[in-house]
Amino acid sequence: MPVTVLLVDDEPLVRAGLRAVLEAQPDIEVVGEAADGAAVIPLVRQLRPDVVAMDVRMPLLDGIEATRAVLRTVSDPPKILVVTTFENDEYVYEALRAGADGFLLKRARPAEIVHAVRLVAEGESLLFPASVRQLAAEYGDTSGNPAARAAMERAALTEREAEVLRLMARGLSNAEIAARLTVGTETVKSHVSAVLAKLGARDRTQAVIAAYESGFVAPG
C-alpha cells in the first residue's frame, strides 16, 4: 500500500510543487489538499492519510494549532510533517512540542522531500536530528524544567531504556541502535515502545523533545 499524504498550505504553488514531487514516486499518493489548517480535521477524518504535510504559518489556523487539534480530536491520528520556510524558527520547535513528527524546508530538494515523507511514515528514525537538537538548544527549556523533569523521573526508565533514548536523540534508527548495542532489531523496537509508553509520547520525536526538556539529554 502506498503512503498517503494530505497537503496543507495556503500557497497553491507550494502545494502543486509538493504534489508533483511526491506523486512521481510509486509508493506515495497525494489524497487531498487544503489551503488552511482550519480544514485539516474534516479532511483527515474523511481521507485518513498516513502523513499530513502542513505549513507552519497559515492565515486562519496555523500549523501549530492544527497539529494540536488533530492530535486532540482524531483517533489514530496521522503523522504530521511541518513544512516551513526557515529552519531555525521558534514556530517549528513549538510545532514539534505540540506533537508534530518532524519538519521539512520548502526549499528542500525533491529527494529530501520524498525521504522525509517516507521516514516520518515509518517512524523508526528521527528526521533531521541535528536540526531538532539545535532548535531545542535555542528555544527549549533544556535546563530541566520541573514538570518535564518530574515526568522523566516518573517514567523510571531502565538502564537499557535510558541508553536507547540517548541513541534515539542522536538520530539513530532502530537498526543502527541494534547494531550499536549488539541486539536484535525486534529487541530495540520493544525498548523503544517501552520508552514511548513510559513517557506518554506518541512517537520518538516527542520522546526526544521530552528528553531535552527534562535535562535528561543535553542538546548541545
TrEMBL record:
Residue span(s) of domain HTH luxR-type: 150-215
Keyword terms: DNA-binding, Phosphoprotein, Transcription, Transcription regulation
CDD domains, sorted: LuxR_C_like (cd06170), REC_NarL-like (cd17535)
Pfam families attached to this UniProt entry: GerE, Response_reg
Boundaries of every Response regulatory domain copy: 4-121
UniProt cross-references to InterPro entries, sorted A to Z: CheY-like_superfamily, NreC/VraR/RcsB-like_REC, Sig_transdc_resp-reg_C-effctor, Sig_transdc_resp-reg_receiver, Tscrpt_reg_LuxR_C, WalR-like
Domain of life: Bacteria
Keyword DNA-binding: yes
SMART domains attached to this UniProt entry: HTH_LUXR (SM00421), REC (SM00448)
Entry-annotated residues carrying 4-aspartylphosphate: 55
Protein name: Response regulator transcription factor
